[in-house]
């Protein structure tokens, strides 16, 4: 919210001589009012309805017959038909909106709501917006005004303008200040109206040229009256329909110095109310600083932001992984002790194997030893038995011979 | 003509949370942390191997001792069970359906670890016809977690890629690596609940060689219900 203690300066130009600054005045607060095209559009569309004149269709139109339906059974539509005979009109359909010469559907009535009430504050909001827009060169240009040659926008001119009486003087002034190009445009583009307005006393269509806003009418009104496209207005009674014609903001306005200064009093500021509109303060914008990008990039905001969430790569993508029981590298990553474990197991196995082998070898050897020794004993026994029997037999043979 | 860098961009670069220096610092920290984790993992794995061996030995000794004295050694009742759902979705009555949901057994051949206590045993009783369960040994628990272990991370099912994943989630329960996780599950430690909920329900394959008949209980030459230590052979066929 700008407190407007340091307001920008606007130059005041003379009405003849040389185009140079003769004075400087501060910019009234109105020109910093929020520019709200939506509000202006709403107010304008409703305000524009307020100068309408009632019109309607005659109440009796299409009803001035005594037609009755023929009913069914006559091979004709059941629409009411004109009674009687002897004329072409008899038997013709009547009354219906579809019938020739019948009453229209929903005949227009004068008691249609022609005018619209608009909240006073809304109206004032729209006017403030529209005035603010007249200082914005791109808006004025986009509205179609030829403002290239102007020394400044908003264009403020000395109060001597208010005392002009002759049209010639007025035109000279416009040419001097560079505003005549806009008037030339208006003259150039004067056309016959399209449509039936042309024979309803609205034959020609003109563009809107510059608007001259004055504080006191000392002849200015008449001076500018006949210049095509140019409108004059008192600063006390600025009309939205003129400030934003067609609800398009950015009318080219030429202010007189006193009118310009009066704007501060008429519309007030955010601190001081208007002197003329009781209790009215300038509308407050929703955002004071609309440069959002700059706000976000400012130090004050950036230092308080939290860290940008990291693109957690670890949990982002679907991770493929080999079977740890088949791929040793995966296993070791998960269990770094695994290799050592395998080693130990291997060692243990080998140890066990060795021990077992020793035991087996030992027992085998024992068995073989036992087997060997038992064979020897048997042989010895057999030999002893054989020797004994031979001796006995020899003795018996000797005894028989005697 | 030298290019003028706008001040806002200069400031932005200096301030940037993703600037080179900050990234470098982060990376250094991370690599250091990873190294620490792997060291811990090594030491703990070693410790646990010893522990498991000792436990086995102890059990053997106690049994032998009892035998010598002519009495029995009553082993401690199993604390851990592994449940596998062996029946599909269709036609499950509401109570077993709810219990299966609570146990995270939402599809056929899904498996979960569960701590055995009076309440959980009663739950198992209700869902007996739809599951088979038993007491897994260390190697089964290991195989499940290593081969088919997926973590629940950010409401997503992510395969356990590294110990860092486990560290991030379970560091506060002093579970820092795979072996820690296995140990916590197998011995049903203080933080079993957190270790178990860290794991997504295991999605197993249908068993190699098939089932005999799921309609009968294991005791009756079927497949469902408690099959105590034979769960280990089944898991080997399904893993």
TrEMBL record, chain A:
Keywords per UniProt: Ribonucleoprotein, Ribosomal protein
Gene3D superfamilies given in the database record: 3.40.1370.10
Keyword Ribonucleoprotein in annotation: yes
Start and end residues of each Large ribosomal subunit protein uL4 C-terminal domain: 278-354
Organism superkingdom: Eukaryota
Record-linked InterPro entries: Ribos_uL4_C_dom, Ribosomal_uL4, Ribosomal_uL4_dom_sf, Ribosomal_uL4_euk/arc_CS, Ribosomal_uL4_euk/arch
Cellular component, GO annotation: ribosome
PROSITE patterns found in the cross-reference section: RIBOSOMAL_L1E
Biased composition (Acidic residues): 374-402
Descriptive protein name: 60S ribosomal protein L4
From TrEMBL, chain B:
Cross-referenced InterPro entries: Ribo_uL30_ferredoxin-like_sf, Ribosomal_uL30, Ribosomal_uL30_CS, Ribosomal_uL30_euk, Ribosomal_uL30_euk_arc, Ribosomal_uL30_ferredoxin-like, Ribosomal_uL30_N_euk
GO BP terms, alphabetized: maturation of LSU-rRNA from tricistronic rRNA transcript (SSU-rRNA, 5.8S rRNA, LSU-rRNA)
Location of the region described as Disordered in the Swiss-Prot/TrEMBL record: 1-29
Extent of Basic and acidic residues compositional bias: 18-29
A GO CC annotation given for this chain: cytosolic large ribosomal subunit
UniProt keyword Repeat, yes or no: no
One Gene Ontology MF term: structural constituent of ribosome
Domain Large ribosomal subunit protein uL30-like ferredoxin-like fold, first and last residues per copy: 81-131
Keyword set, alphabetical order: Ribonucleoprotein, Ribosomal protein
Family the UniProt entry places it in: Belongs to the universal ribosomal protein uL30 family.
PANTHER family: 60S RIBOSOMAL PROTEIN L7, LARGE RIBOSOMAL SUBUNIT PROTEIN UL30
Listed name of the protein: 60S ribosomal protein L7
Species name: Anaeramoeba flamelloides
């Amino acid at each position: 919210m700008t407190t407007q203690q340091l307001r920008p300066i606007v130059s005041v130009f003379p009405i003849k001589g040389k185009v140079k600054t003769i004075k400087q005045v501060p910019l009234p607060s109105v020109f910093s009012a929020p520019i709200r095209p939506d509000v202006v559009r709403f107010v304008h569309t409703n305000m524009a309805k307020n100068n309408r004149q009632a019109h309607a269709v005659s109440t009796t139109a299409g009803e001035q017959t005594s037609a009755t339906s023929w009913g069914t059974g006559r091979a004709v539509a059941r629409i009411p038909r004109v009674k009687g005979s002897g004329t072409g009109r008899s038997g013709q359909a009547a009354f219906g909106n579809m019938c020739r010469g019948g009453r229209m559907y929903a005949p227009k009535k004068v008691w249609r709501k022609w005018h619209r009430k608009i909240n006073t504050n809304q109206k004032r909001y729209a006017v403030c917006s529209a005035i603010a827009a007249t200082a914005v060169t791109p808006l004025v240009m986009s509205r179609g005004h030829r403002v290239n040659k102007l020394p400044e926008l908003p264009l403020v001119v000395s109060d001597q303008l208010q005392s002009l009486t002759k049209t010639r003087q007025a035109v000279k002034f416009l040419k001097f200040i560079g505003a005549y190009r806009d008037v030339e445009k208006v003259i150039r583009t004067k056309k016959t109206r399209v449509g039936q307005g042309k024979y309803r006393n609205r034959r020609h269509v003109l563009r809107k040229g510059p608007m001259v806003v004055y504080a006191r009418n000392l002849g200015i009104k008449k001076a500018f009256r006949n210049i095509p496209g140019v409108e004059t207005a008192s600063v006390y009674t600025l009309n939205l329909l003129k400030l934003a014609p067609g609800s398009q903001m950015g009318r080219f306005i030429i202010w007189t110095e006193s009118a310009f200064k009066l704007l501060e009093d008429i519309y007030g500021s955010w601190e001081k109310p208007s002197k003329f509109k009781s209790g009215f303060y300038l509308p407050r914008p929703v955002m004071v600083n609309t440069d959002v990008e700059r706000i976000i990039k400012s130090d004050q905001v950036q230092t308080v932001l939290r860290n940008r969430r990291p693109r957690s790569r670890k949990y982002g993508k679907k991770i493929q992984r080999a079977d740890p029981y088949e791929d040793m590298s995966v296993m070791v990553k998960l269990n770094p002790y695994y290799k050592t474990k395998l080693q130990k197991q291997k060692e243990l196995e080998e140890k066990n194997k060795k021990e077992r082998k020793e035991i087996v070898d030992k027992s085998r050897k024992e068995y073989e030893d036992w087997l060997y020794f038992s064979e020897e004993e048997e042989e010895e026994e057999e030999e002893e038995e054989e020797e004994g029997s031979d001796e006995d037999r020899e003795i018996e043979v000797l005894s028989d011979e005697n | 003509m030298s290019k003028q860098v706008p001040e806002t961009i200069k400031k932005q670069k200096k301030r940037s949370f993703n600037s080179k220096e900050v990234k470098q610092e982060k990376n250094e920290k991370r690599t250091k942390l990873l190294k620490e984790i792997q060291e811990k993992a090594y030491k703990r794995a070693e410790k646990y191997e010893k522990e498991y061996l000792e436990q086995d030995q102890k059990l053997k000794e106690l049994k032998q001792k009892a035998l010598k004295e002519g009495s029995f050694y009553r082993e401690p009742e199993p604390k851990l069970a592994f449940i596998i759902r062996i029946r599909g979705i269709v036609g499950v009555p509401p109570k077993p359906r709810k219990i299966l949901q609570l146990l995270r057994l939402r599809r056929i051949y899904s498996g979960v670890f569960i701590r055995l206590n009076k309440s959980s045993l009663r739950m198992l009783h209700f869902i007996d016809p739809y599951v088979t369960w038993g007491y897994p040994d260390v190697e089964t628990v290991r195989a499940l977690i290593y081969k088919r272990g997926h973590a629940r991370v950010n409401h997503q099912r992510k395969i356990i890629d590294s110990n860092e994943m486990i560290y991030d989630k379970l560091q506060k329960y002093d579970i820092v690596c795979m072996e820690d996780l296995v140990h916590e599950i197998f011995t049903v430690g203080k933080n079993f609940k957190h270790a178990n909920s860290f794991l997504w329900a295991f999605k197993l394959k249908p068993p190699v060689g098939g089932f005999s008949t799921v309609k009968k209980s294991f005791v009756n030459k079927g497949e469902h219900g408690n099959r105590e230590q034979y769960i280990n052979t089944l898991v080997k066929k399904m893993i």
